Amino acid sequence: MDSDASTVAPILAGLRCKCPRCGRGDLFTGYLTVAQRCSVCGLELARGDSGDGPAVFLIFILGFIIVPIALMVSMRVDWPLWLTGLVWGVVILGGTLGLLRPAKGVVFALQYRYRRAEFEGPDDSDSDRTPGA
Ligand SMILES: [Zn+2]
C-alpha cells in the first residue's frame, strides 16, 4: 500500500493512537509500547522514537492547568492536608496516565509527518548489509 499521509490528520491519528500513515492500524501493542509495524499498511513503527517529548509536554500542560485550580480550591475549601494530597494526587496521576498515551501518539504522528525519512529510510536494523557495497 502506498503512503497516503496527505489524508491522515496527524493530530487525530495520534489522539486515537492509530498509525500516522494510514490512520487505521494500532500504534501501540501495550500501554506505551509502540508496535513493530502497522498491521494495516506495514509502516515500520518501531523506527520512530518520541523520547521524553510526550512526558515533558504533559508536565507543562498539566502543571499549567492543575496548579492554579489546586490553589484556588485550597483558598476556598478548608480540607485537611491528607485529603488535599489524596485528591490532587489522584487528579495528577489520573491526568498523567490518561493523557500520556494520546500525547505519545500525537508526538509520534508529528514526527512521522515532519521527519518521515526516519520511518522510510533504508533499514539498518537488519544485519544483512554487505560491507563495501
Ligand atoms: Zn498504517
From TrEMBL:
Transmembrane feature ranges: 55-73, 79-100
Keywords, sorted A to Z: Membrane, Transmembrane, Transmembrane helix
Classification via InterPro entries: DUF983
Name of this protein: Uncharacterized protein (DUF983 family)
